[in-house]
Write a structure and sequence with these properties.
The chain is built from eleven helices and no strands. By secondary structure, it is mainly α.
Protein backbone atom coordinates (compact mmCIF):
# COMPACT_ATOMS: atom_id res chain seq x y z
CA UNK A 1 0.00 0.00 0.00
CA UNK A 2 2.74 2.42 0.95
CA UNK A 3 4.66 1.77 -2.25
CA UNK A 4 1.54 2.50 -4.30
CA UNK A 5 1.22 5.90 -2.60
CA UNK A 6 4.88 6.85 -2.92
CA UNK A 7 5.21 10.13 -4.84
CA UNK A 8 8.14 11.61 -6.72
CA UNK A 9 9.27 15.19 -6.02
CA UNK A 10 8.07 16.29 -9.46
CA UNK A 11 4.56 14.88 -8.98
CA UNK A 12 4.31 16.27 -5.47
CA UNK A 13 5.28 19.71 -6.75
CA UNK A 14 2.50 19.46 -9.33
CA UNK A 15 0.05 18.68 -6.51
CA UNK A 16 1.35 21.63 -4.47
CA UNK A 17 0.92 23.88 -7.52
CA UNK A 18 -2.67 22.69 -7.98
CA UNK A 19 -3.37 23.38 -4.29
CA UNK A 20 -2.07 26.94 -4.61
CA UNK A 21 -4.14 27.64 -7.73
CA UNK A 22 -7.34 26.20 -6.26
CA UNK A 23 -6.94 28.01 -2.95
CA UNK A 24 -6.59 31.24 -4.92
CA UNK A 25 -9.63 30.53 -7.09
CA UNK A 26 -11.82 29.72 -4.09
CA UNK A 27 -11.22 33.27 -2.85
CA UNK A 28 -12.54 34.57 -6.19
CA UNK A 29 -15.54 32.26 -5.88
CA UNK A 30 -16.29 33.32 -2.30
CA UNK A 31 -16.11 36.99 -3.25
CA UNK A 32 -18.57 36.36 -6.08
CA UNK A 33 -21.03 34.78 -3.63
CA UNK A 34 -20.99 37.83 -1.44
CA UNK A 35 -21.07 40.43 -4.20
CA UNK A 36 -24.04 38.78 -5.91
CA UNK A 37 -25.90 38.99 -2.62
CA UNK A 38 -25.95 35.20 -2.29
CA UNK A 39 -24.22 34.85 1.06
CA UNK A 40 -27.44 33.58 2.64
CA UNK A 41 -28.66 31.73 -0.43
CA UNK A 42 -28.39 28.61 1.72
CA UNK A 43 -29.58 29.05 5.30
CA UNK A 44 -28.28 25.70 6.51
CA UNK A 45 -24.80 24.24 6.97
CA UNK A 46 -23.35 22.00 5.62
CA UNK A 47 -26.59 21.14 3.78
CA UNK A 48 -28.20 24.00 1.87
CA UNK A 49 -31.57 23.90 3.63
CA UNK A 50 -32.94 21.78 6.45
CA UNK A 51 -33.54 18.30 5.08
CA UNK A 52 -32.29 19.32 1.64
CA UNK A 53 -28.64 18.69 0.74
CA UNK A 54 -28.81 20.06 -2.82
CA UNK A 55 -29.75 23.70 -3.36
CA UNK A 56 -33.26 24.51 -4.57
CA UNK A 57 -33.53 25.90 -8.10
CA UNK A 58 -33.16 29.51 -7.05
CA UNK A 59 -30.39 31.74 -8.40
CA UNK A 60 -28.76 32.75 -5.15
CA UNK A 61 -29.09 29.32 -3.57
CA UNK A 62 -27.41 27.77 -6.62
CA UNK A 63 -24.58 30.35 -6.49
CA UNK A 64 -23.92 29.67 -2.81
CA UNK A 65 -24.21 25.90 -3.23
CA UNK A 66 -21.86 25.93 -6.24
CA UNK A 67 -19.25 27.71 -4.14
CA UNK A 68 -19.65 25.05 -1.46
CA UNK A 69 -19.28 22.27 -4.03
CA UNK A 70 -16.13 23.90 -5.39
CA UNK A 71 -14.86 24.12 -1.80
CA UNK A 72 -15.29 20.35 -1.64
CA UNK A 73 -13.06 19.91 -4.70
CA UNK A 74 -10.45 22.19 -3.14
CA UNK A 75 -10.65 20.21 0.10
CA UNK A 76 -9.97 16.92 -1.72
CA UNK A 77 -6.87 18.34 -3.42
CA UNK A 78 -5.39 19.87 -0.26
CA UNK A 79 -6.13 16.69 1.72
CA UNK A 80 -4.18 14.81 -0.94
CA UNK A 81 -1.34 17.32 -0.58
CA UNK A 82 -1.31 16.79 3.18
CA UNK A 83 -1.46 13.00 2.93
CA UNK A 84 1.07 12.50 0.14
CA UNK A 85 3.61 14.73 1.89
CA UNK A 86 4.18 11.65 4.11
CA UNK A 87 4.68 9.42 1.08
CA UNK A 88 6.98 11.69 -0.88
CA UNK A 89 10.33 10.12 -1.72
CA UNK A 90 12.69 11.30 -0.36
CA UNK A 91 10.72 12.42 2.74
CA UNK A 92 11.04 15.97 4.05
CA UNK A 93 9.84 17.20 7.42
CA UNK A 94 9.15 20.77 6.27
CA UNK A 95 6.82 19.57 3.50
CA UNK A 96 4.95 17.32 5.93
CA UNK A 97 4.30 20.28 8.24
CA UNK A 98 3.23 22.58 5.41
CA UNK A 99 1.16 19.83 3.81
CA UNK A 100 -0.79 19.29 7.04
CA UNK A 101 -1.46 23.01 7.37
CA UNK A 102 -3.53 23.06 4.17
CA UNK A 103 -6.32 20.62 5.16
CA UNK A 104 -6.36 22.05 8.69
CA UNK A 105 -6.77 25.52 7.19
CA UNK A 106 -9.58 24.38 4.91
CA UNK A 107 -11.39 22.82 7.90
CA UNK A 108 -11.00 26.11 9.78
CA UNK A 109 -12.39 27.93 6.74
CA UNK A 110 -15.39 25.60 6.63
CA UNK A 111 -16.08 26.19 10.33
CA UNK A 112 -15.75 29.96 9.93
CA UNK A 113 -17.95 29.86 6.84
CA UNK A 114 -20.60 27.96 8.77
CA UNK A 115 -20.44 30.49 11.60
CA UNK A 116 -20.76 33.32 9.07
CA UNK A 117 -24.02 31.81 7.81
CA UNK A 118 -25.19 30.93 11.32
CA UNK A 119 -24.74 34.53 12.47
CA UNK A 120 -26.16 36.14 9.32
CA UNK A 121 -22.88 37.35 7.77
CA UNK A 122 -21.83 39.58 10.64
CA UNK A 123 -18.87 41.72 9.49
CA UNK A 124 -16.33 40.20 11.89
CA UNK A 125 -16.91 36.67 10.61
CA UNK A 126 -16.77 37.71 6.96
CA UNK A 127 -13.60 39.77 7.48
CA UNK A 128 -12.01 36.86 9.32
CA UNK A 129 -13.01 34.48 6.54
CA UNK A 130 -11.07 36.49 3.94
CA UNK A 131 -8.09 37.05 6.27
CA UNK A 132 -7.88 33.31 6.96
CA UNK A 133 -7.87 32.68 3.20
CA UNK A 134 -4.76 34.83 2.81
CA UNK A 135 -3.07 33.12 5.77
CA UNK A 136 -3.82 29.79 4.12
CA UNK A 137 -2.27 31.07 0.90
CA UNK A 138 0.98 31.67 2.80
CA UNK A 139 1.17 27.95 3.62
CA UNK A 140 0.13 27.00 0.09
CA UNK A 141 2.79 29.23 -1.43
CA UNK A 142 5.47 27.94 0.94
CA UNK A 143 4.56 24.36 0.01
CA UNK A 144 4.69 25.23 -3.70
CA UNK A 145 8.04 27.02 -3.38
CA UNK A 146 9.77 24.52 -1.13
CA UNK A 147 8.56 21.52 -3.15
CA UNK A 148 10.33 22.77 -6.26
CA UNK A 149 12.96 20.21 -7.29
CA UNK A 150 15.50 23.02 -7.75
CA UNK A 151 14.87 24.19 -4.19
CA UNK A 152 15.75 20.76 -2.84
CA UNK A 153 18.83 20.67 -5.05
CA UNK A 154 19.99 24.03 -3.65
CA UNK A 155 19.91 25.64 -7.08
CA UNK A 156 17.83 28.67 -6.09
CA UNK A 157 20.22 31.46 -5.19
CA UNK A 158 19.03 34.51 -3.23
CA UNK A 159 17.58 37.12 -5.56
CA UNK A 160 18.61 39.94 -3.23
CA UNK A 161 22.28 40.85 -3.53
CA UNK A 162 22.44 42.11 0.07
CA UNK A 163 20.40 42.42 3.25
CA UNK A 164 19.18 45.93 2.48
CA UNK A 165 17.44 44.66 -0.65
CA UNK A 166 16.11 41.64 1.22
CA UNK A 167 14.58 43.69 4.05
CA UNK A 168 13.20 46.33 1.66
CA UNK A 169 11.39 43.49 -0.12
CA UNK A 170 10.23 41.73 3.03
CA UNK A 171 8.84 44.94 4.50
CA UNK A 172 6.21 44.93 1.75
CA UNK A 173 4.45 41.88 3.16
CA UNK A 174 3.35 43.35 6.54
CA UNK A 175 2.34 46.60 4.83
CA UNK A 176 0.33 44.53 2.36
CA UNK A 177 -1.32 42.65 5.23
CA UNK A 178 -2.28 45.95 6.86
CA UNK A 179 -3.75 47.19 3.59
CA UNK A 180 -5.81 43.99 3.27
CA UNK A 181 -7.21 44.46 6.78
CA UNK A 182 -8.15 48.05 5.91
CA UNK A 183 -9.70 46.84 2.66
CA UNK A 184 -11.87 44.24 4.42
CA UNK A 185 -13.03 46.97 6.82
CA UNK A 186 -14.00 49.19 3.87
CA UNK A 187 -15.95 46.33 2.28
CA UNK A 188 -17.60 45.47 5.61
CA UNK A 189 -18.80 49.07 5.90
CA UNK A 190 -19.88 49.31 2.25
CA UNK A 191 -23.13 48.42 0.51
CA UNK A 192 -22.29 44.81 -0.38
CA UNK A 193 -23.42 42.95 2.71
CA UNK A 194 -23.97 39.62 0.96
CA UNK A 195 -27.69 39.30 1.64
CA UNK A 196 -29.17 41.66 -0.94
CA UNK A 197 -30.11 38.92 -3.38
CA UNK A 198 -32.20 37.10 -0.76
CA UNK A 199 -33.58 40.29 0.84
CA UNK A 200 -31.82 39.52 4.12
CA UNK A 201 -30.76 42.41 6.32
CA UNK A 202 -27.10 42.11 7.25
CA UNK A 203 -25.31 44.20 9.86
CA UNK A 204 -22.56 46.49 8.56
CA UNK A 205 -19.37 47.66 10.23
CA UNK A 206 -20.41 50.73 12.22
CA UNK A 207 -17.48 51.78 14.39
CA UNK A 208 -17.64 55.44 13.32
CA UNK A 209 -21.37 55.79 12.90
CA UNK A 210 -22.51 57.09 9.53
CA UNK A 211 -18.92 58.08 8.69
CA UNK A 212 -17.59 54.50 8.96
CA UNK A 213 -17.35 53.92 5.21
CA UNK A 214 -15.52 57.21 4.55
CA UNK A 215 -13.22 56.52 7.49
CA UNK A 216 -12.42 52.97 6.31
CA UNK A 217 -11.89 54.02 2.68
CA UNK A 218 -9.69 56.91 3.78
CA UNK A 219 -7.47 54.65 5.87
CA UNK A 220 -7.35 52.07 3.08
CA UNK A 221 -6.29 54.75 0.60
CA UNK A 222 -3.59 56.16 2.90
CA UNK A 223 -2.11 52.72 3.53
CA UNK A 224 -2.29 52.01 -0.20
CA UNK A 225 -0.26 55.13 -0.98
CA UNK A 226 2.36 54.15 1.60
CA UNK A 227 2.37 50.63 0.18
CA UNK A 228 2.85 51.88 -3.37
CA UNK A 229 5.74 54.16 -2.37
CA UNK A 230 7.37 51.33 -0.41
CA UNK A 231 7.06 49.01 -3.41
CA UNK A 232 8.62 51.60 -5.71
CA UNK A 233 11.44 52.12 -3.21
CA UNK A 234 12.05 48.37 -2.94
CA UNK A 235 12.15 48.09 -6.73
CA UNK A 236 14.57 51.01 -6.98
CA UNK A 237 16.87 49.53 -4.32
CA UNK A 238 16.76 46.11 -5.97
CA UNK A 239 17.59 47.56 -9.39
CA UNK A 240 20.39 49.82 -8.08
CA UNK A 241 21.99 47.07 -6.03
CA UNK A 242 21.87 44.54 -8.87
CA UNK A 243 19.27 42.09 -7.64
CA UNK A 244 18.47 39.06 -9.75
CA UNK A 245 16.10 39.25 -12.70
CA UNK A 246 13.71 37.00 -10.82
CA UNK A 247 13.39 39.43 -7.91
CA UNK A 248 13.07 42.39 -10.25
CA UNK A 249 10.25 40.63 -12.12
CA UNK A 250 8.46 39.91 -8.85
CA UNK A 251 8.77 43.51 -7.66
CA UNK A 252 7.70 44.94 -11.02
CA UNK A 253 4.64 42.68 -10.86
CA UNK A 254 3.80 43.99 -7.39
CA UNK A 255 4.18 47.61 -8.51
CA UNK A 256 2.04 47.12 -11.62
CA UNK A 257 -0.69 45.32 -9.64
CA UNK A 258 -0.73 48.10 -7.05
CA UNK A 259 -1.05 50.70 -9.81
CA UNK A 260 -3.99 48.86 -11.36
CA UNK A 261 -5.52 48.37 -7.91
CA UNK A 262 -5.28 52.07 -7.19
CA UNK A 263 -6.92 52.96 -10.50
CA UNK A 264 -9.77 50.47 -10.02
CA UNK A 265 -10.22 51.56 -6.41
CA UNK A 266 -10.62 55.18 -7.43
CA UNK A 267 -13.04 54.33 -10.23
CA UNK A 268 -15.18 52.07 -8.07
CA UNK A 269 -15.44 54.65 -5.30
CA UNK A 270 -16.45 57.38 -7.73
CA UNK A 271 -18.95 54.96 -9.31
CA UNK A 272 -20.68 54.22 -5.97
CA UNK A 273 -18.97 50.83 -5.55
CA UNK A 274 -20.52 48.67 -8.30
CA UNK A 275 -20.34 44.97 -7.39
CA UNK A 276 -18.46 44.00 -10.57
CA UNK A 277 -15.58 46.39 -9.90
CA UNK A 278 -15.47 45.44 -6.22
CA UNK A 279 -15.11 41.78 -7.26
CA UNK A 280 -12.22 42.66 -9.59
CA UNK A 281 -10.64 44.66 -6.77
CA UNK A 282 -10.87 41.71 -4.36
CA UNK A 283 -9.45 39.28 -6.93
CA UNK A 284 -6.53 41.60 -7.72
CA UNK A 285 -5.87 42.04 -4.00
CA UNK A 286 -5.55 38.25 -3.69
CA UNK A 287 -3.21 38.07 -6.70
CA UNK A 288 -1.16 40.93 -5.26
CA UNK A 289 -0.82 38.96 -2.02
CA UNK A 290 0.53 35.97 -3.95
CA UNK A 291 2.93 38.30 -5.81
CA UNK A 292 4.20 39.59 -2.45
CA UNK A 293 4.88 36.02 -1.34
CA UNK A 294 6.72 35.47 -4.63
CA UNK A 295 8.89 38.53 -4.00
CA UNK A 296 9.60 37.45 -0.41
CA UNK A 297 10.68 33.98 -1.51
CA UNK A 298 12.71 35.19 -4.46
CA UNK A 299 14.62 37.65 -2.30
CA UNK A 300 15.81 34.78 -0.12
CA UNK A 301 18.39 35.20 2.63
CA UNK A 302 21.74 36.46 1.32
CA UNK A 303 24.86 34.93 2.76
CA UNK A 304 27.17 37.26 4.72
CA UNK A 305 29.30 39.29 2.34
CA UNK A 306 32.76 37.86 1.92
CA UNK A 307 35.81 39.99 2.30
CA UNK A 308 36.73 41.47 -1.04
CA UNK A 309 33.35 40.79 -2.62
CA UNK A 310 32.02 43.87 -4.47
CA UNK A 311 28.93 45.57 -3.04
CA UNK A 312 25.81 44.27 -4.73
CA UNK A 313 27.53 41.16 -6.08
CA UNK A 314 25.42 38.03 -5.92
CA UNK A 315 26.55 35.59 -3.29
CA UNK A 316 26.67 31.90 -4.14
CA UNK A 317 24.65 29.14 -2.49
CA UNK A 318 21.57 29.08 -0.34
CA UNK A 319 18.01 28.51 -1.50
CA UNK A 320 15.44 31.27 -1.30
CA UNK A 321 13.34 31.20 1.86
CA UNK A 322 9.60 30.68 1.50
Amino acid sequence: MRRRLETTPQRYHQLATASLILLTLIVFSGAAVRLTGSGLGCHGWPSCEKGQVVAPLQTHAVIEFTNRAFSGVVALVVIAAGLLAFYRVPPRRDLKILGLMLPLGVVAQAVLGGLSVRYDLKPGFVMGHYALSLILLIAAWALYWRSKPEYEAGLIEPGAADRLTMWATRLLLPIGALMVVAGTAATAAGPHAGGAGTNDLVDRLYVKGSDTLSWAVGNHTTIGIVFGLAALAALGIAWYRRASRGLLRALVTVVVLLGVQGLIGAIQYQSQLPAELVWVHVCLATITWVALLWAWSTAGTPLPERAGAPTGAAQPGGAGAA
